[in-house]
Predict the structure.
Amino acid sequence: MSTDETPLLELRRSRKKFIARTIETYGTMIGAAVVGSLIFGSGWGRILSVVAAVVIAFAISLAYHRRARVFVTASRFGSRGWLGTWWTPRADLSRVVLVEQLTSRNAKGYRELYLFDRADKRVARLSGRIWGNKHVARVAHALSLPLSTVDRPITVKELVAVEPRALRVFEHRPWLLVAIFFAVVALIIVSAVARAR
């Protein structure tokens, strides 16, 4: 970033939310691996290898967490991830949608920010679950773009009805990912059984 591009706002992911979600996710993965190995008789060696894989996955997600940033400068919006920082000129941005989205786990909901360009293509999505509700609102105000809000917490289905371009297919139909995952697992099991014969 050049000196004339000093960030008006630089946002890091919420450490508290990252730790809570990571413990929940990886704790569930380790628990499922241990229970599955005990039920199906895979042995302690396999349990240890699964736990090691989970620890490695945790280290990778921690590295990403430390790297991830959102920038708002006088002329650009930027989002940094694994492959570098993606910049969009602020002149190409058209509007911000800020909603409180309900989830099955949290009746209060989280703030979700959806940023669109002039072609009405989604440029970014920032979730209060990851970045923190107040920080998501700070980004919305720092962009100084037309802001659309909904006056009450809404579900994913209601969001898609109000703002069809806000969510991608797998974001508003997560069961598709689950179905694909189980189809792949079933294919692996069938292949392993066929080879064993």
